[in-house]
Design a protein that fits this description.
The protein is an alpha+beta fold. Helix content is 32%, strand content 21%. A five-stranded antiparallel sheet has the order 1-5-4-3-2. A five-stranded antiparallel sheet has the order 7-6-14-13-12, with helices on one face. Helix 5 (163-175) crosses helix 7 (223-234), helix 5 crosses helix 11 (306-316) and helix 6 (210-219) packs across helix 7.
Amino acid sequence: MMKRCLVLPVTLLLYALSALSVGATSSMSDATFLRNLWNEQAVTANDLSPLFLKAVPLEELQELSRQFKADYGEATSVVPGATAGEFNLRTATHDVLITLGRGGDGTITSLLIKQIQVRASPKELLSRLADFGHDHGHLLLRNGKVISQASAQTDLAIGSGFKIFVLQQLEDGINAGLTGWDTILILEPRHKSLPSGTLQNWPDGHRLTVETAALLMISQSDNTATDLVMDHLAELPAHRPGGNKALLTTRQFFQLKADPILAAEFSSASAETRRELLERLSKAELPSVDAVSRPYQPGVEWYASPEDLCAALDRIAHLPAVTANPGFALEDDWHSAAFKGGSEIGVLNHTYVLDEADGTRWCFSATWNQTEPLDETAIHAALGTLLARLPELAE
């Protein structure tokens, strides 16, 4: 069930080394070391290899331990897992899967938190989802049949989840013969946005294919790649991303976030006035990251319902772009896993299409909105647990 390590906000890759370490010898057992580390007890630099300490200083390791203990509770037990070097750490409310490696002298060379699960049944977790945010909606389907729903037809802010609709529009354009995966796009200054992603750091005039831009847009949620694809789609007849789901480019979104007065005007404006306001932004500079680090402002976002998101991702679940990053779904648990999420301060969306080996298809989309920060640590742990145990709901 838990064979592949997750790359998640709740996952911590402290350091991994294959080489033997040279340093002081640690006589502490693996289980004792993990329990002491988690509970902020009796772990010193002598327990860690020099190369580990170079990558993760002891003070940083101790701060991470404090954070994990505060988020998930004190470790009550640590027992060996199913494979060598694997351990199950338990708190009062969570199960944590950890791998640990030692060098030839016994010091720690690697430590990886692979998964954190809430100790609750899938039905219990579904019943708790609404507790994580002021506004919430979710939809869980098994072979198209509703297993669980809450406000499934209500449009909520979805952050970068809107890129699902951009990719859907792109595939429609390709199927219509209006463009192709191998079509060459040219990166221009007007396309450049703020992270996430790295394409904004590439030189002006760089050439890349539609396929590469689409892969970056989804797998890395690259904002500049998204705006490049949206600009390309705007040139295709009848295939411009439009409506409320993809009205803003990410660059425009950040420009509005940096100007609270303009953002307030935009959020209450008619569709026609919004277009006029966005046209004014074409000559504005891209703001700094600090200038846009504000909580969710209703009306300045992309909106869609869980039902719309499930339907859209289901249509494009076969595309490599949506399977490159499986989110919180463990690849070994599924025959295939398609995912796209989105977030900003006060907004979080996750949408999945998951196929079992026997052909059973699950779709799960969940969104939370509020004007103050969400407890993403708790949400992520609940999501990871729920996805791992979805098949139990079919029993």
